[in-house]
Design a protein that fits this description.
With 325 residues, the protein is of the alpha/beta class. It is 34% helix and 28% strand. Helix 7 packs across helix 9. One of its GO terms (molecular function) is inositol 2-dehydrogenase (NAD+) activity.
Length: 325
């Protein structure tokens, strides 16, 4: 079992601590939180060992799980990697692309592995249909959340939209050609609602909307490709696949047939794969353990996290330009 320590014991950090304690692939050694009073309460309530310095925790483990505020990701990753420890970094990988690129360079220099916590890659609904998403040409996503003060220190693009950016980049095998975006600050100093149109070199277009001031929660994506429509509901963990094929000469009584203006006839059929429900956070942590033990690439690499961050900043830059027009 890999010895693991957690940096950061806030809302998400406590979830990671609980799951790592349950995991059969890790031995939870303890945690560090800069708020020692909060850490003492967690230690007393759950029994996790609190370390009084980051250095002591790093020295005691094989893997560091970084669940601190984004502003400290780079500093925590840097000191952990230089100590020869593998790092799991909650999204976004860092505050800037330059920091993310240095994390990648350090991981190679010190021969350690890293994974970024883009948890929607492990959502069972996305997993169920990912292999059927082949060369999508139009993608539409909506990620809406009720207001929560947590995360409002960063734009909604880095808080929420980056989940969908990463998922889209994982299925569109093409470089980003152009980005057009707009955003509005309603309650926060940074944008609370944003819309982005991402154009890829292969012609695919993704239209992404994210909001953290909505009256209800929604996390849905729709993928359109030749002869297929695929929808994913990340919140309800359901998915739907609608496909078309050449219509038979003699359709059955219940066959759904469409005919276009040119006379081409297609049969619509549904292929809804089974969704195997899981704990996505536990899965992302345990697949990272597998990557370390088997010396394979993590499912969400440091490079993946960096590219998602790069596109996120392209969106933020576009919002800034449009704001000044």
């Amino acid at each position: 079992m890999l010895k693991v320590g957690v940096l950061g014991a806030g809302h998400l950090g406590k979830i990671h601590l609980r799951l790592l304690q349950q995991s059969e692939k890790y031995e939870l050694v303890g945690f560090y939180d800069e708020n020692h009073e909060n850490g003492a309460k967690i230690e007393a309530e759950f029994g996790y060992k609190q370390f009084d310095t980051i250095a002591k925790l790093i020295h005691a483990v094989d893997v560091i799980d970084i669940v601190t505020p984004t502003l400290s990701h780079y500093k925590c990753a840097k000191v952990s990697i230089k100590s020869g420890k593998h790092v799991f970094i909650e999204k976004p990988i860092s505050t800037t692309v330059e920091e993310a690129e240095e994390i990648i360079a350090l991981s190679k220099e010190y021969n350690v592995k890293g994974q970024v916590g883009h948890v929607e890659r492990f959502n069972p609904a996305f997993i169920a249909v990912k292999d059927q998403i082949e060369t999508p040409m139009f993608i539409e996503t909506h990620r809406l959340a009720e207001f929560n003060p947590r995360g409002t220190d960063v734009p909604v693009v880095l808080d929420l939209m980056i989940h969908d950016i990463d998922a889209i980049l994982s299925v569109v095998k093409s470089k980003v050609k152009a980005v057009h975006a707009s955003g509005v600050s309603v309650l926060s100093q940074s944008p609370d609602i944003a819309n982005a149109r991402i154009e890829f070199e292969n012609g695919c277009v993704a239209n992404i909307t994210s909001s953290r001031i909505s009256l209800k929660n929604m996390r849905k994506s729709r993928f359109f490709q030749k002869d297929a429509y695929i929808s994913v509901d990340y919140l309800d963990k359901t998915c739907e696949v609608v496909k078309m094929k050449e219509a038979p000469e003699t359709p059955g009584d219940f066959d759904m047939i469409l005919q276009n203006a040119e006379g081409d006839r297609k049969q619509i059929y549904f292929n809804n794969p089974e969704v195997s429900h899981n704990n996505a956070i536990l899965d992302e942590l345990e697949t990272f353990a597998d990557a370390i033990n088997n010396n394979t690439n993590p499912i969400v690499t440091l490079e993946d996290g960096t590219e998602a961050l790069r596109v996120a900043y392209m969106i933020i830059d576009s919002m800034e330009k449009n704001k000044n027009i």
